Amino acid sequence: MQDEEQKCLNRAVSLLSRVSYSKKRLNDKLRGKFAQSTIDATIKELEELGLYSETKEIGVWLRYYQGGKKSRREIEYALLQKGFPKSLILEQLESLDEQRDEEVLKILVEQLKNRNNLNDEKIFMRLLRKGFASNSIKKIIRELSSEDSELY
What is the pLDDT of residue 149? Predict the structure, then answer.
């Protein structure tokens, strides 16, 4: 039995060294090869040793998604899809800077106006579907429209 626990621990460490996993996903990866009791003991041991923390894993994914052009809602949905608990996700999302959302929104509005030559209503609807707040979208569109009108 001790040998199986060691194999499970080695496999878990190997998996975690490549990709950040939620407990659920890690459990799913190990389930085919090891007994559930062995998996539970392995995850508990990893947490006790400080080698695994779901909060840290969420942080890794947050940093990854922050580099892109995703809204908070898109990030939340992506993390839920990875199997992280909603309570931990919401806790970690609180740390995201609201200024960052506005900066991303501004970049997206400018890109949509310049590249696709879309009107404000179509831009608004596209960004609303991406999960941005309607009042934030309206604010940024108004700001950019007033900047454009000042140029002429």
Answer: 57
